[in-house]
Amino acid sequence: MREIAAQEITDVIEQLCVEANRVLPADLERLIGERAAEETGEPARAILCDLCRNLDAAREMAIPICQDTGMAVVFAEVGQEVRIQGDFEAAVNEGVRRGYVDGLLRCSVVQDPLRRGNTGDNTPAILHTRLVPGDRLTLTVAPKGFGSENMSRLKMFTPAASPEDIVAFVRETVELAGANPCPPIVLGVGIGGDFELCAMLAKKALCRDVSQRNPDPYYAALEERMLAAANATGVGPQGFGGDTTCLAVNIEAYPTHIAGLPVAVNVGCHVTRHKTVVL
């Protein structure tokens, strides 16, 4: 049995909150640069180049890449041979508090969904915990801004729905979102499970590197079809038109009930942030 102190978890979460908000994953930054070079529309190309300069400035000045530093979403894969010394959830939230307050990140969490009232430290985090084999603890922090989150959708299809129907739903989601999620966007698509699991799958899909296609060739091909459909909308960077509305589509699938076919689309903006550490 391997022991990990709660303090170590707090320290790592604090670090991840700050770093994820300051530096975009390398594969996503590279993709934005590639799309800027390929973009045929002049306004769209200029916007993509501005986004690249913004990423450079954030890195050089050690400031957030976006003013909306998001709600902290934490995925934790806890090895079954790990024993955590202390309160795990409290350790995660303390790390978020320190990361946002001491890291000078914008605190955007309210203590009640209807009566509001800012918590002042961006806690509590959204925490997804999963037990896995082994003696490691994998922590991923994915700060999620709500300009894009608000554009996300979920639909309970029937089993009669075809792949074409699902692609059409993804395209419709992009069209309805328009400029609101600060395109170019990244789409996480969850297919299967039940009502709540397909939404979590979509969020988890946004934490996969955009350079990695689904390991199942069937879903990898479907990702490409969805990407083409999203870009065919012509929404373009920041909604001004162009070839690059969507940078990547990541699908996560799970078995489901014979009577259902849940599909969730979690929309991520051009700064779809995530960073992982393995303890």
Write a compact overview of the structure shown.
By secondary structure, this protein is α/β, with parallel strands linked by helices. It has helices spanning 6-22, 26-38, 42-61, 88-102, 146-149, 163-177, 195-205, 217-231; strands spanning 2-5, 71-79, 82-85, 126-132, 137-144, 153-157, 185-193, 246-256, 261-268, 275-278.
Question: Which percent range fits the helix content?
Answer: 25-40%
- The beta-strand count equals 10
* Average pLDDT score: 97
Individual helix count: 8
Summarize the main sheet.
4 strands, mixed
Helix and strand run: EHHHEEHEEHEHEHHEEE
Biggest sheet strand order reads 4-2-5-10
- Beta-strand portion reads 15-25%
| Distance between the first and last residues' Cα | 14 Å
Task: Give a structural overview.
- The model has no long low-confidence stretch (mean pLDDT 97).
- The protein has helices at residues 6-22, 26-38, 42-61, 88-102, 146-149, 163-177, 195-205, 217-231, and strands at residues 2-5, 71-79, 82-85, 126-132, 137-144, 153-157, 185-193, 246-256, 261-268, 275-278.
- The radius of gyration is 19 Å and the shape is globular.
- The chain has 279 residues and is of the alpha/beta class.
- Helix 1 (6-22) packs parallel to helix 4 (88-102) and helix 6 (163-177) packs parallel to helix 8 (217-231).
